[in-house]
Amino acid sequence: VDPRAMFDDELPHDLAQWFREKLRLIPGYVDTMWSDNDHLDIFTDFCMSYDSKKVHCFLVKQKDEVTLKATFSPREQICYDMKIPMFLKPTMDKEYVTLELTGKGMFPRMTFDAREVVMPVVPLGVVSYCTVHIINHGYDNLELQYKLPADEDRVPLKVSFPEGKMIGIAKQKLPVVFSFHSAKPMSFTGSADFIDEDGNRFSIPVTGNTDSCTFAIAPFLAANERSVRRDASDEKLPPMAVIPPVDEQTIESYILPSGAWDHETPVANLLRWINTMRPNPMTELPQAMVASRGQRMIDLIEFVSGKAVPGKAMKLSANKKEQADQMVKLYDGMLTHLKTFGALLNDVKPEMLLDIEDFRRILYTMEQKQQMSDNPTPEGDMLPHWAAMEANWAQVSAGAWFKVVFEVLKVFVLSRVTPKQLKTLPGVDPNECSGDPSLVGSNIFSVSETLLLKWMTMHFKRALPQLAKRVTNFEEDLSNGLVLYSLLVSHWPALDVYFKRLNKTPKHQRHIDENLKLFLEMFDSLALNYDTPELHELQKPVAREMLVFVLYLYQTLPQLIPKTTIEFTGILGEKMAKVIELNNPSAKEITYTVRMEGAKVFSIESLVVRLPPKSSAEFEVKCCPNTSKPTAACVIFSSRKDDGASAATLVFGLVCKTDSRKPISTQTTDAKLYDMQTFPIDITNPFPSDCEFSIVLIQDMVKEEPKPPPEQKRGSGADKKKEKKPKA
Predict the structure, then answer these.
(1) Hey, which of 65, 89, 508, 698 would disulfide with 45, CB 3.0 to 4.6 Å?
(2) 109 near 19, Cβ under 8 Å?
(3) Do strands 157-160 and 201-210 pair parallel, antiparallel, or not at all (unpaired)?
(4) How many H helices and E strands in the chain?
(5) Average pLDDT of span 172-201
(6) DSSP 306
(7) Rg of the chain's alpha carbons, rounded to an integer?
(8) What is the mean pLDDT of the chain?
(9) Could you report the per-residue pLDDT of 135-169, keeping only the tens digit for each?
(10) Is the per-residue pLDDT at 70 higher than 80?
């Protein structure tokens, strides 16, 4: 059955009206169509009552329509509701239909099309830009005012309006450009306030980062590989990126990276470096960190810094929602802890480090709070941006975790490369490190990185003086294998046997590949606590990855220089033994694997040494010389990746020298004076291969020796000569 009368199907359910105090309102309105659907050709009489004392009637002819206009002029920022009964004559005692009107009074406001402004990380002296849009909600015609943080030294932020400052009915969306630059590394988060005519403030957080470390600016350098030129022509100056002056820079001068994490970015060396310190290796960095609920990251921070991370011992609640809140608090404390040591992590939020389920719980809590509020809130305005982050969660989470790991590596490991430390390393001339102007002032390398470049240059000149040149980067200069070869040979001279296979002037890719394969073979022979890199990683080196690898070599190769040399001096064929004393001052057990390299006259009985906490142990090395020429070897103690402490590699040099010869056998014969006597001598070859012996006759008068005293009781080690114990 068709209704006798009806409303338009497109009737809006509610009406929002913007108003401003002390100003005359222009009422908002909404129209709806009321139509007669009666089949009789007569006028239908409708009545409408919204006040018990007032009844408004109107007639609608058959199949005709009438427009009802409802106006709304709120006086407060609250919700309004009104029900209007509609009657159909002559039945006035019962309403035919009820018209319900709802409205909400709201103050004019501004919102932004971004949750926050995060400007891309750039090298020192480069202007970083980011554009956001201000969206109008209720202003007729407003000229924007703004206020930036007062401390321009710590927050050097600037704002420009490419399309003017007016926003209103004719301009509902206004672009705003934020920019900054700095000559020193910094990371800041400041609030930019936009103010209307009534003094109401609408704020958006703005984050900027600038640095001279490869770990931070690698995305910028990769994006501008062809457009940004590097200059290292003057050996008295550090390597620099040639960039236009600040007043001439525009967005077209270079490409600003998006900030999103690229899953194809190589991180193999970063994983290898982390795995050298922990017993349980990781295969996928972000997933392992998230799965452990940040415990692996906390362990890493404490291991490299020696400082406890606050809040790590909290007991997680069984309630999933409370657990998510606890994880946000834990990560927030971890990030704050890192920032106190100089980590530039203002663009990483604790929510980004959560797993996806915990993030959804946090997002749901935000949505619930917004639904309970009648008025818009800044948190509510941010919900769409958090939701967009959820849709791209894999990249967001990976980017945040890698950013944290690289900052940990920069702050606690790379920063320990100092001029004072470099002077103490073997093969380094201290005079070359004093007052060197090429170590400071670079806009793409920190001082620690220029020191690593200096360290590689020194060993390049030491191992291959005819081919050596200044090393100015971590990619191109290492790609032919010559510098990498020099580092190994300079610290482990026994590897110079590979020199004949080295292509000294590689001009073709085949020669370069042969050098790189040679380096990998040499590296593998050292049996270091680091998985051997793949060939393709060296063929196409990535700056950030190669920096991690060079940093590992800088920490490890000097350990291969013997701490001391132990000399064995005795009679040819005599068995000797000396003891090395090992100490463990740490609170955890240390396990060493032991190996010998060099002459076979030296031997060891144990291949593994375990040192309990706060203890020491003696390790015996035996020597039995089989040649009159001096022989040498090394005994190497490598810390094993167990649950205990990780210690530095210990290397001791071994040298054997013979000062006299012990007879293999003694043969006695009697003869008369001047009477020739002939007798045979049996010669036995004590060596494991065929030998040719030269015969030399040495004559000497034999003196009668006094009879020896009676033999005293001797221990089982009477044939060993024990001397002072070297300590480690």
Answers:
(1) 89
(2) no
(3) unpaired
(4) 15, 28
(5) 91
(6) -
(7) 41
(8) 83
(9) 988 888 889 999 999 988 899 999 999 999 999 88
(10) no
Question: For residue 467, which of 450, 452, 481 has the smallest C-alpha distance?
Answer: 481
581, β-bridge pairs: 618, 727
Question: Which among 467, 474, 408, 411 has a CA at the least distance from the CA of 442?
Answer: 474
Nearest to 562, CA basis, from 626, 621, 646, 484? 621
Closest among 256, 245, 177 to 217, alpha carbons compared: 256
Instruction: Write the DSSP assignment of 5-18 as a string of letters.
Output: EEE-TT--SEEEEE
Measured distance CA(38)–CA(62) in Å, rounded = 6
Q: What is the pLDDT of residues 26-54, one digit of tens each?
A: 555 556 665 656 544 444 455 555 555 55
Specify the amino acid at residue 46.
F
pLDDT at 727: 60
d(CA 610, CA 715): 27
Which residues, in sequence order, are CB contacts of 608 under 8 Å at separation 6+? 591, 592, 593, 594, 640
Residue type for position 382? M
Neighbours of 354 (CB within 10 A): 23
Comparing C-alpha atoms, which of 255, 549, 235 is closest to residue 413? 549
pLDDT: is 376 or 340 the higher one? 340
Comparing CA positions, the residue from 141, 23, 17 lying closest to residue 70 is: 17
What residues are paired with 45 via a beta bridge? 59
Half-sphere exposure of 17 (CA within 13 A, CB side): 26
Phi, psi of 116 (to 5 degrees): -160, 165
Query: ω before 162 within 30° of 0 (cis)?
Result: no
Is the confidence at residue 414, as pLDDT, over 70?
Answer: yes
Judged against a pLDDT cut of 60, whether residue 351 lies above it is answered with yes
Residue ranges of alpha helices (H) inside 507-664 are 509-525, 535-539, 543-556
Q: Is the dihedral of CA 290, 293, 295, 298 positive or negative?
A: positive
Q: Which residue has the tokens 């926003």?
A: 167
Average pLDDT value for residue range 695-722: 60
Residues whose CB is less than 8 angstroms from the CB of residue 216 and which lie 6 or more positions away in sequence, other chains included: 121, 209, 344, 406, 407, 410
Q: How many angstroms separate the CA atoms of 534 and 12, rounded?
A: 65
Residue whose C-alpha is closest to residue 258's, from 219, 222, 224: 219
Q: What are phi and psi of 60, to 5 degrees?
A: -130, 120
Spatial separation of the C-alpha atoms in residues 514 and 501, rounded to whole Å: 9
Residue 643, pLDDT score? 61
Helix (H) or strand (E) holding 38: none
How buried is residue 555: exposed, middle or buried, by Cβ count under 10 Å (0-12/13-18/19+)? middle
Q: What single letter denotes the amino acid at residue 366?
A: M
Q: Which pLDDT score, from 0 to 100, does residue 59 have?
A: 61
Taking residue 308's Cβ as centre, other Cβ atoms within 10 Å add up to 12
